[in-house]
Every structure is written in C-alpha cells, then in structure tokens.
Write a structure and sequence with these properties.
heterodimer; A: 545 residues; mainly alpha; 2 strands; B: 338 residues; six-stranded mixed beta sheet; five-stranded antiparallel beta sheet; globular
C-alpha cells in the first residue's frame, strides 16, 4: 500500500492557503452587524465606488491589452517565418525582466506634464494627454505583463494540429479569422492560464498604480492598514476583493464547463510554418521588434543613462547598499523558487502514486487557489497569526524563563517565504505538473515492474525528461518573487530591504531618478533568469517531442 | 506447474464494477489471451496481476505464493513479471542497451553479455547505442520486450502491444514476439480486443465481457463453437438465421433434425458455398461485391429471410450486383433461446 507520507505535501499547501482565508473570513464573522453596516456605508459614500471602478477598469484593460499583445505575437511567431524571427521569438520574453513600476518610473519621467517629451511638444505648440490616467497604466502594465500570455499562447499554438488550420483554410477563413476563431478558441485553457496570471499580477500590483497615482483596492488596503491604521477596515476590504476574485474565476470555469479543447484524435499533425515575403514580412518583423524596443530596450537604456548621469552623485555606500538589497531580493526569490518547485514535485508524485485519491486532488486544488489571493491580502492574513504566535511564545518564555524572546518569527523571513509560497505555488505547480504529466504512466509502470524504486524512477527517468519544465517553473517563480512589492512591504522583517521595497521608498516622493540605481539593479538581477527562461522554454518542447 | 492463478478477482472503481469475479490459471510455457471489447476490464485485470492496482476481493497467486488479496498487495517490483505496454514506454532518454539493462542490477557494461544475447534474440544486433526515436515502431516494441525479458521473469504480460503499429507491421511483429517469447521459455498473457491477434498468438483464449469470463478455450473452440451469439459476433463475421430460413439453404437438411425450432442459427461466411445460377433454381441475389484482394466480400439477399447474408467468394470470379446464385450452408451452429 502506498505510504501515508504522500499526503503530507498536499495537506501542507492546502493548510497554508487556509490560513489567510480563515483570518479574513474570521474577521468578518466576529464583527457585529451594526458596525459592519456602518463601516461599509461610510466606505460606499466616500471612495469605494471609485476604487471599484478603477480596479475593474485596470484589471479588464490590462487583461485585454496583454491578451491581444501576447496572443497576436505568439501567432505571428509560431505560424510564420520572417526576418529576425530566430531572435525575436525569445526576445519577446525580455520585458519580463522589467517590473511594471520600473517602466512606470521611466514613463512618468519622460511623458508626464513636466517631462521631457510633453515639454518639447509644447514648445512647438502641441499638447499631450495626461499620462496619470487609466489608459497609461493599462498600457504600461500590458507591455510588461504580456509575456505571461505570450509564453502560454506559444505553447498552445505549437501543440495545435495543422489539420484545424487546413480545415479553416478550406472553409475560406482569412489568416486573421483563423487566428481569432481557431487558434485562440482551441488554445483557450492554456491561454487562460496565462490570462489568469496577468489578472492576478494586476490585481496585486501596488507599485505601478501608486506611481501613476491611480487608486485601486490594493492601494486602498495598503493605505488603510499603514496610513490610517484602520486594520479592521483593511481586512474587510481584503474580504471584498477575495469575494470578487473567487467569483471571477468561478464564472470563467462555468463558461467553459461543457466544452473540451484537447485534441480529439491521438496524433497532432505538426504546424506548417508559412514563410512571409515582401512588405508583410517586414511588418511581421517590425511589430514584435517595436514591442521589444518599447517595453525592454527603452526602459533599460533610460536606466543606464540615468545612472551614468548620476555617477558623481552616487557614493560607494549607495552601491554597497543596493548590492545588499539585490542580494536580499535574489536569495528570497531563489529560496521561494526552490521551496515551491520542491513542494510541486512532491505533490505531482502524490498525485501519480495515489492516483485514485480524490482527497489529494481536492487539497491540491485548494493549494492552487492561493494564487488568486492578492499579495497584500496573503501578507496580512499570514502576518496576523504569526504576530499572535510571536506574542504567545514571548508570553510563555516570560512566564517560565523570565526572558523575552523578541520577534522570533515575524523578525525572520519565514513569514515572507510562507506568503510567497501561498501566492506563487500555483505557478510552480503548473509547469512542474505539465512536465511530469507528459511522461506516460506506463513508463512508471515499466520501471516499477523492472524493480525500480520511485527514487530511481525519478532520478534516471523523470528528472532527465522533465528537468526543463522544473526549471521553467522555478524561473518564473523567481522572476515573480523578485518583482513582488506589496506582500514584501507588509511582511518583510524590520530593517530588511529588497530592491522592490527600496524602489517603493525612493519613488514615494515622485522624484523618479532617485530610484534609478535599484531599478537598474532589479532589471539586471532578473535578466539572467529571463535569458535562461528563453532558453529552456524553447527547449522543453523538443524534449517532449 | 501453475505459474499464475487468479481466484474470483473482483474490482470496482467507485460504484462501477469492473471485474465481477474472474478466475483462471496459467501453466508454465502457456500463452493465454484476454480478449474483449474496450472497457470490459481486461486491462484492469492485467494491472491487478502486475501489482499496479489493488483488488477488492479474491486472490492472485504467483508461483504458489499469494501476491494480491484483500489487504495484501506485493509491490510490482517484487513480483518478477515482465510488462510490455501499448505505448511502448521505452525511456526516451536512454539508448537501446540502457533500456534493456534498466531492470538488471548494475551498469550496462557488467551486463553486456546478457544484452547481446537479448539483442540477438530480437534480431537487433548492432542497435545497442541507438535511441528509441531512431528506430522504427516495430523495433521499439521488440526492444520493449527485450527490456521486459532481461531480468528473466517467468511471466510476460503484453497490453495491446500491437495497436500502436501499422496494419502491415502488426502480423509481422506479432509473429516475431511470439517466437521470441517461445525461445525465451516464458509464460505469457496477451491483452487485446482484436480476435485475429488473439487467435494467432495464444494457446488458450479467455473472452471477457463486462467484467466476467464468458468463454474459455482454444482459438478454434472460440471461433467454431462460441458460447453465445454475442461471442460469435465479437470474434468474427456472423450471419444469424432462423431454423426455417436455414432449412431452405442447408446442404444436408437432416442435420437440422435435432435442433430446437426456435433456435438462433449461426452461419460463418466461409461455411456458405456459392454457385452462379441463371435459371429459376437460384435462392439468392448478390449485392455490394467488395473486392478485398485475396477474396471478395459479398452480401446476398434471400427470398426466405429479411436480413442479408455476408459471404466470402472466390476472387477470380467477376461478381456483380444483381447476379443470381444458389447458396448452400455446409456448417452451422445453433443457439437455443433462453
């Protein structure tokens, strides 16, 4: 009989997710109804309608924007051959190395009313619309978040069967109609995973929206907690967002309940790549090129220029501090990535070994649902019980040993790692699971029948075959954690700065160039991870073929 | 000497019973085939014997030691059964040699003699360092068999091993696997839904339907003396006639004397002789001739019977729809209605 140890990891992730959920739901339940009505009545009469409108505008705008960018770019790259394709294919992932708040800083410095470009335009009597508005935030965030959808859509399109494309052609569909009606519809589950990731990144974003002074539920929660110290209200706002998010994903699931998207026949006919010629070919090159130039090269070059300009203002101490923050960012992100991939692999095995177990599937789904909780909410939900735990520990030690222990748990990065694990487990699990589920279970059975233990099957069969997917999952977690700002601000141990929190601090005064150094560092720290991701996300496909 | 014995094996997935008490024995050097339509439980039975699935009730005995029973599940790696799968399941990251050596203790080098021996057995000498994707589907299936044979198991089980192969290759690989297994001196269980595979491979066939063994016997028994009309239809092309209709067709009407007048009569296409008749003494009209190379498939409409008969005819005659013929049934089997 399979050992009970295989239940451990699914239980762990499920319990972790339940912590912030129960804290927030608990806060609602313990409240007396009169108070509840009063607070919400007040909120509703003041900012709440605007906050909800802003948040919805932002989430829908960024989802649509990055969906259009990501899927169209993926379609062009997968289905066609054009000059420069060989490097643009990978280069389109480079904007992942630019956090939204970094492109925001650059954009505001150049395009705000007093910025370089509108000033120049005014000198020739031309106006420029106000950049501190919804369209600008949506554009900035779409430009750096589309790679999540691009990576998903590229996989979806590549695995599609040419048969469907041929069918569309024989029915007289244009190339655009084929993309819209065949490509996107068949690839929907995979593409939607990317969209979900973008929606959650947007909903959780604190940095970018703050820079554009665009108030959303996330900024409101943060402000209410740290600015106004109205903790109850903050938690209630969390509850409202949580409800909204669960509703959103429930509706998405509902709309595709009955339809299936996987290939019906066994073998997919590989896609035939169309070679583009003439003007169309150059258009196909220009579009991705422009996106990479605008979303990656432009902010990176600007940051480099700023840093060169400020060379004389920076002291060795500045560089030293920033290096230390970079070290913090990298080690936290690396730890989180390793923890998450390890747990994910463990759970994949639980599912493989206890294949009939409904319990394991339910627990895993619960764990995965953690990713729909915005970072601030997770951080608050984790911090409250941890503070309580610290207090309990201190009370016990004072009582029995007459000593104060201090902040044992909240003073360490444990809370931060727990929060990141809850938030990003789904990302790591998605790729780990995708890699392992491509390996036929009869391969395991063959190994078992030949006397191999699970350890040996993992080492000599699964690891070599799925290594690429594990790496891709780990790298995306690394990148996400590196950029993460909201949760880190809430739950980081006192005195510990990461690049993201430093950028938050320095950009608070709207003096954008002050944040040039950590901004450049954060891009440079993530760049190797993105390059590795480009390499491995291209390769995983070959390995499975 | 019994290699394997299954005793009233039962298994359900949730509410859904998959095996309703299956029993059978397997003797040394015997080849048995589990034949049945998809979903009949044959693969589940194989997985239970292999130890990949637990049973609900009953017992599986290997070499006179119980390996599966209620609350008992000896893990697959301790059973010493070789498995060959439908999707081949060669490890794509290993060479042919490494695949074959997987179940042997130690490295490829220490087992080079055994590997060479097996490669010779499967006629793939010189393929040691190829990767699975560099060899053909038939070759892959032979390597998978060599991998299963490497640790010298007494029993090999093959789960639909030919269904991933092209039609022409199928017979060839089947014969090859059959020879290799005979030479290796093992017992074998083949799971398939294809009766021609089963007949060509096994000494004994177990027809499984809806979780039960519905007939057990030699391929000849199953084909010529099926236990029920369903089995008859499953293992070959079948015509069913009433006794009345048969009387007009039987070459020897006395053979019908003892038959229940309400019986259902099975007539195989090859047991009907056909003669062209222009005159009035014909009893059937030809329809839908389909040339199949070594024979012609025909349908014949009878005056005495509504359902048309399926026939096999000589491929040198040019058959046309509307030709009149005289049919004679030389052999038949009667099923009394329950």
């Amino acid at each position: 009989m399979p050992s009970r140890i295989w239940y451990a990891a699914p239980w762990l992730v499920a319990v972790l997710v339940m912590i912030p959920c129960s804290v927030i739901i608990g806060a609602f339940i313990t409240l007396n109804p009169g108070e509840l009505v009063e607070t919400w009545g007040h909120l509703w009469n003041t900012q709440l309608p605007q906050l909800i409108l802003n948040t919805l505008t932002l989430v829908i705008g960024v989802a649509v924007g990055s969906f259009l960018l990501g899927t169209s770019l993926a379609w062009i790259v997968v289905m066609h051959d054009f000059p420069g394709k060989w490097w643009l294919d990978g280069a389109l992932l480079l904007p992942m190395a630019i956090p939204g708040y970094v492109i925001g800083i650059v954009a505001l410095d150049h395009w705000d009313y007093s910025g370089t470009i509108p000033t120049a335009l005014r000198s020739i009597e031309l106006g420029f619309p106000d950049i501190r508005s919804s369209w600008a935030v949506i554009m900035a965030m779409s430009l750096v978040l589309y790679p999540y959808i691009y990576i998903a859509a590229r996989t979806a399109f590549r695995e599609q069967s040419q048969t469907y494309i041929d069918l569309a052609k024989t029915h007289g569909l244009s190339s655009f109609q084929t993309y819209w009606q065949v490509g996107i519809r068949l690839g929907r589950p995979t593409i939607m995973a990317g969209v979900a990731l973008v929606v959650m990144e947007t909903l959780a974003d604190l940095g970018t929206v703050s820079i554009f002074a665009f108030d959303t539920m996330t900024t409101a929660i943060y402000e209410t907690w740290f600015g106004l110290f109205q903790r109850q209200t903050a938690i209630q706002l969390c509850g409202a967002v949580m409800l909204f998010v669960f509703l959103l994903f429930y509706v998405e699931r509902l709309t595709r309940r009955r339809s299936r998207h996987d290939q019906l026949s066994g073998k997919a006919k590989p896609i035939t790549v169309t070679r583009l010629k003439g003007r169309v070919a150059w258009l196909a090159t220009a579009y991705p090129f422009a996106i990479v130039a605008f979303a990656f090269v432009y902010p990176l070059v600007t940051l480099i220029v700023w840093n060169v300009q400020r060379l004389d203002q920076q002291t060795v101490r500045d560089y030293w501090n920033t290096t230390e923050q970079a070290f913090n960012s990298v080690s936290i992100a690396l730890l989180a990535a390793v923890i998450i991939v390890a747990i994910s692999i463990f759970i994949c095995y639980s599912r493989r070994i206890l294949s009939q177990s409904r319990l394991v599937n339910t627990l895993t789904m619960l764990g995965v649902s953690g990713f729909v909780l915005p970072g601030t909410i997770i951080a608050l939900g984790v911090m409250i019980p941890l503070v309580w735990l610290d207090n309990m520990l201190n009370m016990v030690s004072e009582r029995f040993f007459d000593r104060t222990l201090g902040l044992v748990i909240t003073g360490s990065i444990a809370g931060l790692l727990i929060a990141h694990t809850i938030r990003f487990f789904a990302v790591g699990f998605y790729f780990t699971d995708a890699g392992l589920s491509k390996i036929s279970p009869s391969m395991d059975n063959a190994g078992q029948a030949l006397g191999a233990s699970w350890g040996r099957i993992f080492r000599v069969v699964h690891l070599p075959l799925a290594r690429g997917s594990f790496l891709v999952g780990g790298l995306i977690v690394f990148i996400d954690v590196c950029k993460e700002m909201a949760a880190t601000l809430v739950i980081r141990p006192f005195g510990v700065d990461t690049l993201a929190t430093k950028i938050w601090e320095l950009s608070a005064e709207s003096y954008w160039k002050d944040a040039a150094l950590p901004s450049l560092f954060i891009v440079l720290v993530m760049l190797p991870a993105v390059i590795l991701l480009i390499k491995f996300s291209a390769r995983t496909r070959n390995a499975s073929a | 000497m019994r290699v394997l014995s299954c005793d009233t094996v039962k298994k359900s997935f949730g509410e859904n019973p998959v095996l309703r008490g299956v029993s059978f024995d397997l003797a040394e050097h015997e080849f048995v085939c589990l034949l049945g339509p998809s979903g009949c439980g044959k693969t589940t039975l194989l997985r239970i014997i292999a130890g990949l699935e637990a049973l609900d009730d009953g017992q599986v005995t290997l070499n006179d030691a119980a390996v599966s029973a209620r609350g008992l599940l000896v893990p697959p790696q301790e059973r010493g059964i070789g498995l060959v799968f439908q999707d081949v399941a060669l490890f794509p990251n290993m060479t042919v040699s490494q695949n074959i050596a997987f179940g042997l203790q130690g490295s490829v080098k220490t087992h080079s003699r055994r590997i060479d021996e097996l490669l010779e057995l499967i006629n793939l000498e010189g393929y040691q360092n190829r990767y699975p994707f560099e060899i053909s589907g038939g070759q892959q299936q032979r390597v998978a068999l060599a991998r299963a044979l490497a640790p010298s198991p007494r029993l090999i089980m093959l789960d639909e091993p030919f269904s991933s192969l092209d039609a022409q290759l199928r017979t060839q690989v089947r014969d090859e696997l059959h020879r290799v297994l005979r030479d290796a001196g093992v017992s074998a269980i083949l799971v398939t839904h294809d009766q021609s595979e089963a007949f060509g491979f096994a000494d004994r066939v177990l027809v499984i339907c809806d979780g039960c063994v519905v007939q057990e016997g030699t391929p000849e028994d199953i084909y010529h003396a099926p236990a029920s009309p369903w089995i008859a239809g499953f293992v070959g092309v079948s015509n069913f006639l009433t006794v009345e209709a048969l009387q007009a067709l039987a070459s020897d009407p006395t053979a019908l004397s003892g038959v229940n007048p309400n019986a259902k009569i099975l007539v195989r296409p090859e047991d009907i002789s056909i003669a062209l008749r222009d005159g009035t003494d014909h009893n059937a009209i030809i329809d839908q001739p389909r040339f199949a190379g070594d024979h012609v498939d025909l349908v014949a409409h009878l005056a005495s019977c509504k359902t048309p008969l399926h026939l096999i005819a000589n491929h040198h005659t040019k058959w046309q729809a509307g030709q009149t013929v005289e049919l004679k049934v030389t052999r038949f089997r009667a099923f009394s209605e329950e």
